[in-house]
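Weekend entry, working from home. Most of the wet-lab plans are on hold until the incubator is repaired, so I used the time to fold the two sequences that have been sitting in the queue since the last round of cloning. Logging both here for the record. First:
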Amino acid sequence: MSDTNSPQDWNTLAERVACHVENYLSGLEAVARGEGGTHTIPLLLLEVSQVILAGAQLGASADVILPDNWEPEIGDDPDLDHVRQGLAERLVTVDEYVEVFDPYKDTEPTSYRLSDDLVDVASDLVHGLRHYQQDRPLEALWWWQYSYFNHWGNHAGAALRALHAVIAGARLDVVQESVAVQ
């Protein structure tokens, strides 16, 4: 996108991001309810990858600036603890992992939980979605972009790496075992 985004450009981007957000939220809730079965990790990898695409679009866009430089009040965001708990139950064997939060500034790994990361992302996204659903696409974009750089982008990236490691480890272990058997 160019540095001079028109209202139509912003509306188009907001619509695209809102679609990614809605898909992420519904996918996360389905997995938390146990609908992923044996495909829980691959489904989460897909959901996180797609929402990171939305983040990349926000990151590649010009800064979203609110005309009055303030965010209208939208009330309390929904409580997502039931989603966090459902994910923790499904991810029990892989929920905890370590990550270097900022590869340019941090030198020590930090402990994380996939269930926390996935719901932290959801919390930021649902806040922006509420603006979007109240027909305020610019406020939604501002929030999504700001929180992408400030919070959910890091958590989504860390979760993506952890999910990838679980899947890659399982697939590569299977390949090594089958080669050794031959």
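Second, folded right after the first finished:
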Amino acid sequence: MSDSVPQRLWLEWAKQIQAISQAGLAYSKDMYDLERFEMLRELSVDILARYTEVETEKIKSLFAGESGYATPKVDVRGAVFQDDRILLVKERIDGAWALPGGWADIGLSPKEVVVKEVKEEAGLAVVPVRLLAVLDKKFHEHPPEAFHIYKMFILCEITGGQAEAGMETLEVGFFGRYELPPLSVGRNTSKQIERLFDLRHGTEVWLD
């Protein structure tokens, strides 16, 4: 592969190849077409293994569980404020900080997901107030990912509970706009969190 082509462009091509191969494997009936779509999937795995930090076998296992028409995955994060400070949790997996949240669950609405995640990761009961942002991860300064991901940020108000770590978190804290700790940049960036401080006071929904 030419090093003159930007890394993220290779990643986007690989994801598109994966999506085409996944749909082809799901809907094609011709054995020769199925073989070609499987070759495309292998090609996408090789590219993703080169340009991400995910091992080839793990990428294969991830894609093996995907079938049908490929769609973006959805990550839902809660923006919870207290005394002009935002709630962050220290992730057990990498020791860095993030807004509480995670993958959208089948059968749950985004509001239900954010309530569940904030409770599980930070010990607080919250009520969703409004949507602040829907972002495409590829437009932001996140590490390379194997999947195409949309991120939803939902403003929440605390209604009860006690701030405490959960099974997936080590610590819980509230931080000012200009005193953010080391962030888990795969989950959120400093620019995103800083923008949430502004968005909570208005009616704008950040789409990017």
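Plan for Monday: verify the second prediction. The first strand starts at residue 73 and ends at 82.
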